[in-house]
Write a structure and sequence with these properties.
- The structure is a homodimer of 354-residue chains.
- The first copy, chain A, is α+β, with helices and mostly antiparallel strands and 354 residues long.
- Chain A folds into 2 domains: 250 residues, Glutamine synthetase/guanido kinase, catalytic domain (Creatine Kinase, Chain A, domain 2), CATH 3.30.590.10; 86 residues, no CATH class.
- Chain A contains 13 helices and 10 strands.
- In chain A, the strands form 2 sheets. An 8-stranded antiparallel beta sheet of chain A has the order 2-3-4-5-1-8-10-9, with helices on one face. A two-stranded antiparallel ribbon of chain A has the order 6-7.
- In chain A, strand 4 and strand 5 form a beta hairpin.
- Chains A and B meet through helix 9 and helix 13 of A and helix 9 and helix 13 of B.
């Protein structure tokens, strides 16, 4: 277990671009909120209690099979750039990244599993899977959760279930989500209908970086809101059913675009690629918007010679802290826009504007 | 003398991209308004008088040395597409192109000289020269004017000079103009100061296609307003002096951009080239805007492997009627945007986005 450099050039699980419906579902995610019995909730812990809890959690997590040869970092090991880096890879949350108090994080070697220690809850266990694979993610996280429970006593109430710092997580403590790429529903202006329907079903829609982030680049993260009064299987099954419907809607919208608006669509796709290949300065927001269109172009067979996996890698590498890690130095916002443009031109050099 | 096809693939004089200061001055133009004694002005002519005048003018013009092996067209020879085509090549005026009554036009083989017959005046004699060459244009047009005067009696008043249909042309009947490409003055927001100063000097600023057109793509046509009470040499000298000053201003503005805003400038230049290489549909206005930036990029040595002459050719070939002549069919506006984009991609294929 060393610093973060080994992660820089490995591929994030959530961007592997494989698995069911991976042209629409980027990734599936499960997280469990858990607290350790006998301790106050995170925000009420004294310094020495935090340290004791981290030690306890660390020793438990390190025993789990998934974390063999994994990484373990404490607050003191992580610069703010490191935390931003982990956030960009979806391995820690915004809240965890900005924590002032003690915190720690444990990552499996392949970035499939992570445990945030002293986030809002003592433990936030997460499993990511490429593509549409909620069941696979559930199997992994359930096994991991059982393993951890063998080494720690969870705060559990016989009627309420798992106790959590925020009442919205009480019960299963489970949040299941999928990140979807829905350019056609956005372009055909059907996305608002979808979002409204989701609200009625008590599902939340968020941006690429979870709670508190706006959808951008046509990426949407859909998750369950309810954790109490339903069991895990019901949560997963109901989310799965809805996601399957949205995949169908997106597919239909793509077909409509390809038949009725083919010309305009291809114009947008090629122009997006042109901008990425030409720009000398480019923000991450503009890049994400263009990459989304290029991704659609690849999915529809308009653009050749570029794989979904390669494109997904670009999505992550153009993020601010990834650029800085690659350059081995802190970069101002303007410098980042410059480095990002240079990186994109290099990476897309061989993709031709036909 | 046949139809217009031979012109299609020859290079317009005004876009040859040669001569003094041709990185800033696209072309220099002279025109003389002349009327034939013994006839009413154009708009008052009866049908048979028009025909008589055209015959008279035709036989005079065809005797001139410049029109040997030239082209002569009458209203009946020209479709509205043909007229638009001649307009795009700056060989006839908007007014002449939209004439309902009889009209005719005579062109020299190299497109340097043209005579519009039955425009607002009986004769509008024009000479175009590439680059900054008002004197060269004057010498040619003066010689041509003298030749024509040997075969026709001009309407001339000993005190007022040449008589014209509109009082603003009485006297010399001379309009001298230069078309300038001033991207740096536009980008540094100094162009309005320049335009205000010109107004005080009684010079007019117009768009690429003369009277009634707005400047676009950073192209400005500057011309004298006064024709009465000054002689030809004074008109030319005063316009020359002002143009020389504007060239200097533009050069300074380019230097400022290259030193203080180099990054932003290069970003704009490459993105413009990227859009031209990528688009599937593109309007002539958008194309002109991008080509203007690409032209600046070529002039500043940012873009390699593209000549000014080649770029100038693109400026003309992307115009609506040129596209239609090339495709050998009438094209809707959407079809033109499609053909224009395809043409640009083909022509710019070898120019690399570095």
């Amino acid at each position: 277990m060393s610093d973060l450099d080994p992660l820089l050039h490995s591929r994030c699980e959530w961007l592997r671009g494989e698995g069911e419906a991976s042209d629409i579902v980027m990734s599936s995610r499960m997280r469990l909120a858990r607290n350790i019995a006998g301790f106050l909730f995170t925000h009420h812990l004294a310094k020495d209690e935090s340290e004791e809890l981290i030690d306890l959690a660390e020793s438990a997590v390190k025993k789990a099979a998934l974390f063999k040869e994994g990484f373990f970092f404490e607050q003191k090991d992580l610069s703010s750039l490191d935390k931003q880096f982990l956030l960009e890879r979806h391995l820690i949350s915004h809240e965890h990244a900005s924590a002032k108090q003690d915190m720690a994080v444990c990552l499996s070697r392949d970035e499939v599993a992570s445990v945030m220690i002293l986030e809002e809850d003592h433990l936030r266990i997460q499993v990511l899977q490429s593509g549409f694979n909620l069941r696979g993610a559930w199997e992994l996280i359930d096994r991991l959760d059982s393993e951890l429970a063998g080494h720690m006593a969870y705060a559990y109430h016989p009627t309420l279930g798992f106790l959590t710092a925020c009442p919205t997580n009480v019960g299963t403590g489970l949040r299941a989500s999928c990140m979807l790429h829905l350019p056609a529903l956005v372009m055909t202006k059907q996305i608002n209908k979808v979002l409204q329907a989701l609200q009625k079903l008590n599902l939340a829609a968020r941006g690429m970086y979870g709670e508190g982030t706006q959808p951008s680049g046509n990426f949407f993260q859909f998750s369950n809101q309810m954790t109490l009064g339903v069991n895990e299987a019901e949560i997963i099954e109901s989310l799965e059913r809805v996601i399957r419907q949205i995949i169908q809607n997106e597919k239909e919208a793509r077909e409509i675009l390809q038949t009725k608006k083919k010309d305009k669509l291809e114009d947008q796709i090629w122009r997006a690629l042109g901008a990425l290949k030409a720009a000398r300065f480019i923000s991450s927001r503009e890049t994400t918007t263009h990459l989304s269109l290029v991704r659609l172009g690849v999915d529809l067979g308009v653009i050749q010679g570029l794989s979904a996996a390669k494109l997904n890698e670009l999505f992550i590498m153009i993020q601010p802290s990834h650029l800085q890690k690659c350059s081995n130095r802190a970069l101002s916002s303007t410098d980042r826009d410059y480095e990002r443009a240079a990186f994109l031109r290099r990476e897309l050099k061989s993709v031709e504007l036909l």
